[in-house]
Amino acid sequence: MQTEYIWIALAVILLLAEFWAIRSVLRSGASKNSRCMWMAVIIFAPLFGMLAWWVAGPKPETQTS
Questions:
Q1: What are the CA-CA distances from residue 32 to residues 2, 5, 6, 36, 44 (Å)?
Q2: From the CB of residue 54, how many other CB atoms can be counted at a distance below 10 Å?
Q3: Alpha-carbon span 46 to 34, nearest angstrom
Q4: How far apart are CA 65 and CA 47, in angstroms?
Q5: How far apart are CA 6 and CA 44, in angstroms?
Q6: Are 8 and 37 in contact (CB under 8 A)?
Q7: Residue 18 and residue 32: Cα distance in Å, rounded?
Q8: DSSP structure string for 45-58
C-alpha cells in the first residue's frame, strides 16, 4: 500500500470525525455563544478541538432512578 493512500485515508477519517463533532456541537443544549466558540475551536484546531469537545463539552443528562 502506498504512503499517499494512507495519508488520504487518515485525512478522510479526520474530516468525518470533524463533521461528527460539528454536528454534535450544533445539537448540544449549550448557549449560542458557547456553540460558536466550540465551532471555532473545532474548525481551526481540529484534533485539539475534537478532543477538547469530547472531554469538556456538555454531557447528555442521564436519568437516575
A1: 44, 39, 37, 6, 18
A2: 11
A3: 17
A4: 37
A5: 23
A6: no
A7: 19
A8: SHHHHHHHHHHHSP
Sign of CA dihedral 52, 58, 63, 64: positive
Phi/psi of residue 31, each to 5°? -65, 165
Residues counted in the chain? 65
Global confidence as pTM: 0.72
Question: CA-CA distances (angstroms) from residue 30 to 15, 24, 59, 61, 63?
Answer: 23, 11, 10, 13, 19
Mean pLDDT by 10 residues, the chain (65 residues): 85 90 87 89 88 79 60
